[in-house]
């Protein structure tokens, strides 16, 4: 099946997944295998029952999706009972018939399993740029993807917004799925876990819910800080967590802070989060930002001149998602106007973004700038460690956050590793008095103000 045909089938299953309940999707759509032969979409069902039901209830919708997505090129459906041959090492690369049929089945199968697991195929290790800031997290993720349920369990990835935690989790899931055709992987945002659990409770299906999550080979839960304050969900997750760990299945978790500092979680859960391996992702340094820009530009089919990449990387420092947004805007602008992407063009096209960026000094930006200034890691700045070499820069960063942003004291405390608002208040007062008595602090403060408002 060509890339287009795979994309067509992926489109169909993603649409149906959004339209159907997960029970319907898992029962009727998930077992199907697909193949495109000219204008024909051939669907293989594992048995007569699935075939009849799917044809009766979903054929019209599937045909509609196919026609629309393929712009009329695929316009017929054909259902059969059966299974495409899987590719084995003995059929790999042999004659056209075995090769093409086998690859087709594997591709469509993988696409279906990926959709069922909520995984994005674009988030993989090939598209993840390595830098000092994410080296350890990347290496640990690769290790786990190759050897799930092994030594590092759970893997806990933490770091600020938009720095690649989700990307790495998907990459782990994608490798596990691709290397084991029987592996069951589930990626979920913690809020979705909570929502599904509530739905299961309302519909008297909590036993099914438990069974589903306790029978996976890899469970990837994003942003676990959102479990805070949700006791019933924590309880359920705690048991799922234990069951998976006991049966040596892999767990990967992410959060915006270190496990011990996720507030609003039961202590037993917090301590378990730290049982395996905990790795940080920090904001990228300039070189990594530039490399990421080049990588994303290539994916968009453009080549970015070096000076433009450095300009964008230097000016947009808060997170990688924003870096990507700026690049997309640049590429779209160049496309519409037909102009080449030069430095002048970039300055012009990104004017609004940069003005907004400059005005709105973000908390991440302050943390990252202060960390760079004192040659620390952002994660240390947010940690509970109290050594003087960390405490003073942290207080400075909090004071700068109060001065340069509109965030409240509790919000600032929250962003600095879940600290209390009184800690922030104390920091601002302390820095105010130190600036009057200590020339070095005054100079640091002024330097940082200048860098942040440049
Ligand atoms: N090292 C990297 N190489 C390539 N792309 C990256 C890298 N790090 C992050 N990205 C990209 O940046 C975007 C944001 O990353 P991601 O969604 O993984 O962030 P996150 O840390 O999970 O953020 P959040 O806390 O908001 O969930 C994605 O498009 C991702 O592909």
TrEMBL record:
Q: What is its main location?
A: cytoplasm
Its cellular-component GO annotations read: cytoplasm; plasma membrane
> Cross-referenced Gene3D superfamilies, in alphabetical order?
1.10.1750.10, 1.10.8.60, 3.30.300.180, P-loop containing nucleotide triphosphate hydrolases (3.40.50.300)
Q: Where is this region: Domain III, AAA+ region?
A: 118-334
State the protein's purpose: Plays an essential role in the initiation and regulation of chromosomal replication. ATP-DnaA binds to the origin of replication (oriC) to initiate formation of the DNA replication initiation complex once per cell cycle. Binds the DnaA box (a 9 base pair repeat at the origin) and separates the double-stranded (ds)DNA. Forms a right-handed helical filament on oriC DNA; dsDNA binds to the exterior of the filament while single-stranded (ss)DNA is stabiized in the filament's interior.
The protein's assembly and partners: Oligomerizes as a right-handed, spiral filament on DNA at oriC.
Q: Which family does it belong to?
A: Belongs to the DnaA family.
Q: What is this protein called?
A: Chromosomal replication initiator protein DnaA
What organism is the protein native to?
A: Allochromatium palmeri
